[in-house]
Amino acid sequence: MKIAILGAGCIGCYVAGQLLKEKVSLVLIGRPYIGDSLKQHGLTVSDQDSQPLTFPPDTFEFSEAPEAMRDCSVILVCTKSHQTEQASQDIAHFRPDATVFSLQNGVHNAPKLSTALPDATVIPGTVVFNVVSLPGGHFHKATEGDIYLGEHPAAASLKALFAKTFQPVWHTDMRSVQYSKLLVNLNNPINAISDIPLKKELETRHFRKMLAACIYEGLEVYKAAGISPTSLGKVPVKWLPRLLNTPDIIFKLLAKQMLSIDPKARSSMWQDIQNGKPTEVDDLNGEIIRLGQLHYIRTPVNSQVLDQIHQLEQH
Ligand SMILES: NC(=O)C1=CN([C@@H]2O[C@H](COP(=O)(O)OP(=O)(O)OC[C@H]3O[C@@H](n4cnc5c(N)ncnc54)[C@H](OP(=O)(O)O)[C@@H]3O)[C@@H](O)[C@H]2O)C=CC1
Ligand SMILES: CC(C)(CO)C(=O)C(=O)O
Hints:
It catalyses: (R)-pantoate + NADP(+) = 2-dehydropantoate + NADPH + H(+). One of its GO terms (molecular function) is 2-dehydropantoate 2-reductase activity. The protein is α/β, with parallel strands linked by helices. Helices cover 43% and strands 17% of the residues. It has helices spanning 10-20, 32-41, 84-94, 109-116, 159-164, 174-185, 187-194, 198-202, 205-225, 240-245, 248-254, 268-274, 285-294, 300-314, and strands at residues 2-6, 25-29, 43-47, 50-55, 61-63, 74-77, 99-103, 121-127, 131-134, 138-141, 147-150, 169-171. The strands form two sheets. It has an eight-stranded mixed β-sheet, sandwiched between helices. Strands 4-3-10-9 form a four-stranded mixed β-sheet. Ketopantoate binds at residues 105, 129-130, 143, 184-185, 187-188, 267-268.
């Protein structure tokens, strides 16, 4: 069995590194700016608890061409949400019968892939942790958290391999997992706007209050839409706004786990803004706004954040 990782960026390269620990045959499909670095330096992965591990360039395959997925029966889609359509066209062209996992933020990527790929098995996934890209093909897991994948009979033969590598949590209700992660991701634009590392941003009450207001609106629209998000951390999601609103000193005492973040960590949306790329804001805050419109609930803070990100995207 060979695995294709479609979208060799932070998540794709980090997960590839976990699979390479078991010498899995894989191809990373991505852009030249990543490929050149991987070919020169190899692929290095690390996390907060372990030393960096480097895989030399001859231990994995990298390709800029989607044709490279032709001999892969399993495809991990690790592109941004607005790139899912292109990813599905690439898969439809070269491997329409594959088992496809979406390791993306947002709640509509797996359904989009399923619609575009009627002969594939599409399994939703959610990555809870943050990965930062460091110079020299180095991808560093900078926060705690797991990868969640949807339980599916087609994934049975992969369970042993995945358990030895990136150790996903298999979940029967990925909709509630993804809507829960969406609430956490409402911080992505705030981190981009703050332009400071995640840890510093969460230690700053002004930014926490913005996030609390976004999450509060999210919880209100979820109630109206009948969505019950699973709690992914120790703190139940419905308590998040209250916890985030506490003064700095109390927050630091109560939210030790939430603040165990590498000082280098920044949200993926911050990375997009820095690189002059479009962001996923329409799939994140945009989803809260869309649900609000559907259920006649105002979402002014998410709208303001979304507008600010669209302005930053223009610069
Ligand atoms: N980074 C993080 O810490 C986390 C990210 N996530 C989610 O994971 C998903 C992936 O994010 P991330 O890894 O940060 O994204 P990145 O932008 O770092 O990586 C994606 C890479 O794939 C490339 N790409 C996109 N489409 C194709 C294609 N059709 N063929 C080949 N290459 C392609 C992109 O190129 P380019 O854009 O230059 O065209 C980019 O280099 C997102 O949904 C994100 O929200 C979830 C948790 C944490
Ligand atoms: C930071 C994190 C892990 C949660 O908001 C994330 O999902 C991202 O950077 O996209």
